[in-house]
Design brief:
This protein has a single domain, classed as Rossmann fold, CATH 3.40.50. It is 26% helix and 25% strand. It is built from seven helices and twelve strands.
């Protein structure tokens, strides 16, 4: 049996992730999902399946608007509701009829980084695209200022002692965040990381491969690499 046959996709083709069929999550599990955008299909499915707590981390205004629309969508069971943003064609198919406990999903409107700061948050040139980046030259020249916090900062703020699954789709910031995570000796059981810096051809110093090597040397096992969307499992030495 190959790797992929032991995994299942949760969420849309665009915003979903491959995770183990026997993923170890339950009602006490804590999920940090950074980079919500306008596709939280993965988060909704995983909350519905395992009744876990999910912290959505994204300072983008459109993302917060989308989250509020999602809550109304489920509250009214309005399956023909038209979202205001730019959602995927298979989005509603992946989210409607789920049994989601919104008391266990919180939205945190800060940016995940390796320190507490106020930084430029660059916008894409095509206005329909929701994602923004803390990395200069990733997108266009226009920006907002956002407050950033490290993973350790956010855990302390929320009184969380562990993370069961960390999802990162943060447009190039993943390298700084992952290295900070390891520096702080934080080891989520599962990682779902989109390595955007390399994916978008911005990784001039090969930081992606260095970071992946560091993760593996720290106990992370690569379960699947789906076009630089990599799922890892932590196995303590």
């Amino acid at each position: 049996m190959d790797k992929v046959s032991k995994l299942k996709r949760l969420g849309t083709k665009y915003g979903g992730w491959l995770v183990p069929n026997d993923i170890s999550l339950d009602s006490k599990s804590i999920i940090y999902s950074a980079g919500a955008g306008e596709d939280i299909s993965f988060d909704l499915q995983i909350q519905s399946l395992f009744d876990c707590f999910i912290l959505l981390i994204d300072p983008t205004l459109r993302s917060e608007i989308h989250f509020n629309e999602i809550k109304e969508y489920y509250k009214n069971k309005n399956w023909i509701f038209k979202f205001s943003g730019n959602t995927q064609k298979d989005y509603k198919k992946n989210i409607k009829y789920l049994d989601v406990d919104f008391s266990k999903i919180e939205y945190f409107s800060k940016a995940l980084w390796d320190s507490k700061d106020q930084l430029k948050f660059y916008k894409q040139e095509k206005e329909q695209n929701v994602s923004q980046s803390l990395i200069n030259n990733m997108f266009g020249p226009k920006f907002d200022f956002v407050e950033t916090l490290s993973l350790k900062d956010i855990m302390t703020k929320n009184n969380h002692k562990h993370i069961d699954l960390l999802k990162l789709d943060i447009e190039g910031s993943e390298i700084r965040v992952l290295n900070s995570m390891l520096d702080d000796q934080i080891y989520p059981n599962y990682l779902c990381v989109e390595f955007d810096l390399k994916l978008k051809g911005k990784d001039k110093d090969n930081e992606t491969e260095k970071t992946i090597s560091r993760l593996k040397n720290s106990g992370y096992i690569e379960l699947i690499n789906d076009n630089l969307n990599i799922t890892f499992y932590y196995e303590e030495f």
